[in-house]
Amino acid sequence: MKYQSFITKLLALALICGILYHYQNIAAARAAVVAENEAAVAEAEAYNREIQAENQRREAAAAGGSGAAGSETGTETASVYKDGTYEGTGTGYGGPITVSVTIESDVITAFEVLSHDGEDPAYYAQAEALTETVLQKQSTDVDTISGATFSSRGILEALNDAVDKAVNG
């Protein structure tokens, strides 16, 4: 009984140290996931810039004289993407996000998130606004939603994965 208060405080201190140690491990794991996601986003953005540059080169070539000859001979310019519906997966804050993208004549006509099981509902609800932005801009080169950055990146990563599957080549 003489040392009961001391032992209680010692156990509380040990418990607090254990919790802090566990929290540090979780924080380190999340930091690694964040770094991995940022690298994937940078890679996807670089790929998008390449695709956009290729599209601009094709448009310039079509407008630079080959368009008139193409219409006289009846040939059409090659599509960048195959028509169809494609699924892609990306990593959001809480885990995998799966999307479906429908492409017709090089235009994204539909974009839908199929699953986002691990995402926090509040963050995902904000990030879902990306679907409309992507359809309007016809590009994955859009800003992420502030406050839902990781969910936004997951959606864009999944979209890029689906669009990659549609590329002619």
What string, H for helix and E for strand, traces the elements in order?
HEEEHHH
Report the major sheet. Answer: 3 strands, antiparallel
Top-tier CATH class of one domain: Alpha Beta
Q: How many strands in all?
A: 3
- CATH topology annotation of one domain: Sufe protein. Chain: A
Strand order within the widest beta sheet: 1-2-3
CATH level-two architecture of one domain:
Alpha-Beta Complex
Give the mean pLDDT.
84
Termini separation comes to 80 Å
Shape: elongated
Continuous helix count: 4
The whole-angstrom Rg is: 24 Å
Could you say which structural class the secondary elements and strand pairing correspond to? alpha+beta
pLDDT < 50 stretches: 65-75
Structural description of this entry:
The chain is α+β, with helices and mostly antiparallel strands and about 170 residues long. It has a three-stranded antiparallel beta sheet with strand order 1-2-3. The radius of gyration is 24 Å and the shape is elongated. The chain has helices at about 5-75, 120-125, 130-135, 150-165, and strands spanning about 85-90, 95-105, 105-115. It starts with a helix and ends with a helix. About 60% of the residues lie in helices and about 15% in strands.
For this entry, give a set of tags.
alpha+beta; 169 residues; Sufe protein. Chain: A; 3 strands; single chain; three-stranded antiparallel sheet; 15% strand; elongated
Topology:
Elements: H1 4-73, E1 84-91, E2 96-104, E3 107-115, H2 121-127, H3 130-137, H4 149-166
Antiparallel strand pairs: 1-2, 2-3
Question: What's the quick description here?
Answer:
With 169 residues, the chain is of the alpha+beta class.
